[in-house]
Amino acid sequence: MPNSALRRLPRVTEPAVEKISDKVAETGDTKSRILDAAEELFMEHGFEATSLRLITTAAGVNLAAVNYHFGSKEELFQAVLTRRLDPMNQDRLQLLTAYEADTAGKSGKGALTCEQIISAMFIPALKLARDHEQGGKNFLRLLGRAYADPAPFIREFLSNQYAEMITRFRAAFGRALPHLPREEVSWRLHFVMGALSYTLAGTDALKMIAQFHPEEVNNDELLLKRLAPFLAAGLRAPLQQASDAHQWFTEA
Amino acid sequence: MPNSALRRLPRVTEPAVEKISDKVAETGDTKSRILDAAEELFMEHGFEATSLRLITTAAGVNLAAVNYHFGSKEELFQAVLTRRLDPMNQDRLQLLTAYEADTAGKSGKGALTCEQIISAMFIPALKLARDHEQGGKNFLRLLGRAYADPAPFIREFLSNQYAEMITRFRAAFGRALPHLPREEVSWRLHFVMGALSYTLAGTDALKMIAQFHPEEVNNDELLLKRLAPFLAAGLRAPLQQASDAHQWFTEA
DNA sequence: GCTCGATTCAAACGATTGTTTGAAAACATC
DNA sequence: GATGTTTTCAAACAATCGTTTGAATCGAGC
Fold this sequence. Notes:
The first copy, chain A, has helices spanning 30-45, 52-59, 65-69, 73-107, 114-129, 136-148, 152-176, 182-201, 214-217, 220-235. By secondary structure, chain A is mostly helical. In chain A, α4 packs across α5, α5 (114-129) runs antiparallel to α10 and α8 (182-201) runs antiparallel to α10. The longest helix of chain A is centred in the middle third of the chain and has 35 residues, at 73-107.
């Protein structure tokens, strides 16, 4: 295990012609190279189907480096997630706080609009989607898939990572939609998070069929700008009364 | 390979006290026992993390039976999906056709409402959710997770399975929302499918936090009845004009 | 120059994976 | 009851997995 603090840079005396793998040469220290390669490969093949040998070869480091720096494959996966997820959720909370302070100062009784709350959720994700330099776009897909992964250690990890954010945003939506029961708000927040992560997961089977313009398929920015109004309208949908329930699924 | 047609029943002369595995004894012929066990275990652990030995032990059959009856692990997975997915999508198309014939006969110019089209998508899923006898509820979760699986053979399979259904429903939504550009309709249909499969996937990390009543967490019927109005409102959301785009994500 | 902790490396570990094999058993047909 | 096909079975296959080991190499501090 590394006591952190100091870490050696990769060997400088590399043979000039050497090509470590087919992938583009990674840069930075060993830990970052592993994280970068793992982020891309986990996104591409999933957790179980990605071997440590594939990751270390792509990163140009020794196989044992993963266990040395991260402890295990599972801990590596968590490190890949937490590197970007933690700052993103911090941004979300910070943005929500800024909005609340802003409207509270102006109109006294501050209740944000659904659009504002959704913006606080989406803008930090957009920042990653626009991050062409780093693997931000890769990460959004990886995150979307991690939600659906059945592995207990992944679900537990995400649950902890999102606990604070969910609580804060549920309260905000509750104030924005005071006519809705608290439980209905929880469900609709759940739908919002679901649609967001699913669409960000990206290369699903359905996109192939759905007749999109080619330049839009992998443009997360346009995607989020289409998704946001859709979800805002869903959040504001009138509450389904028990007496109206027969309107739905009458034949089921 | 089996020439199908006739298949032998499992051995009748079992020792009375024998307990093949910890799981409840499966019933039916070998092929069905494998499908049932695989459906539950794939749902629980995912495709990669589920070994054939785990499946065959739970089903009480020999390890080689999978390769004999299905050819490979991948083909087994496809068989598990197609067993319920094919009838469900057939039901959806049939229901949509029935609705269209009904309204065309009454009002001449027949354009279904969003609620009717969503019902045609949801009712067949509800039928599986209510199928307490068989593994219908398991299957919905398995299906939701299969959408997010990066394995190429899964994505290709689902793409083929859904091609006809997507085409038909996109046309229906297009007639129900004539003011929307065709591409916007495609995206919103994509959002609907995403929210549906994500919420059906079930045991995601977020449910743990979201403060649901315990009796509702695993009730797919209540879930769908809450999701349907949410999505119907989203589908009918006014089109986001380019001049209004600044309203969203101004700070991003 | 030497020591000491941090890091890298090649090699091997034991376990598990999906698949194949060939013989034994159960079946259907005559 | 013999024949031929279908199905089951125990055993082994080669490959790959995550992890561990112990020595080699590096950089910094005295």
